[in-house]
Amino acid sequence: MAHQAGGQRPAPRPVPEGLEAQAYLQDYATLLQAVHFPSFVVDHRWDVVLANSAFESLFRGVGPHPTAMPGDNFLRFVLFHPDAATVLGEHEPSWCLPMLAHFKAALERSAHDPGLQAIRRDITQDPLMEAAFRQGLPHWIRAVGEDAAEHDGAVRPLLHPDPRWGATECRIVGETPRTLEALGYTRLTLVLRDARRPAAVPRRPRRVRGGAGHLTVVPAPEA
Fold first, then answer.
1. Can you list the residues of the chain whose pLDDT is less than 50?
2. pLDDT recorded at residue 148
3. How many CB atoms lie within 10 A of CB 219?
4. C-alpha dihedral sign at 116, 118, 120, 126
5. Which listed residue, of 60, 186, 196, 207, carries a Cα 20 to 30 Å from 14's Cα?
6. In this predicted model, what pLDDT tens digit does every residue of 83-92 receive, in sequence order?
7. Which domains does the chain have, with CATH numbers?
8. Can you give the C-alpha Rg of the chain in angstroms?
9. SS3 at position 77
């Protein structure tokens, strides 16, 4: 589901007020760097606040994009970057639809948030993406249950650029301490599974450039 988002690049994220909060985040960044697996911290808009070098390595082959780089906003990356499917295996059912479900919930909680509204506008600008959001998402939730959208504990396919990992899986582990949660942030770690373990992971898809794709759960509109 590749889509060239039409919105502007997200505005710089505000730095938490208070020296203690800033010092905490600096120390937490040091902690993330010590983690072997890709680990990152996001706010309620999925703006990436912190990310470790393993996270950067996972997405090192991703091409430039004006609004949807993985280190800027992970939600935009999953939904809008044309290279997302080259890293996120089974891109539509395993990553896009759960992220759309989280976005819908966030929008319901913070309907007037400008960052979320900007993402909503980009979805609206693409008829296929809009159909996925309005029609495909409810259909998917009815088919698999609302729990399928939960990130913590989910096992999802990955296509790691490092051949030592290659086509593998990761378990998403949510581990947000109280102080981080009080700042409005969430931490997720992608615990990679040994590539030698059997896993039903598809081959690396071809990189598609240009044009918007769509979720296969949503029929293409008739010409």
1. 1-6, 12, 199-214, 219-223
2. 77
3. 12
4. negative
5. 60
6. 999 999 999 8
7. 19-192 (3.30.450.180)
8. 17
9. helix
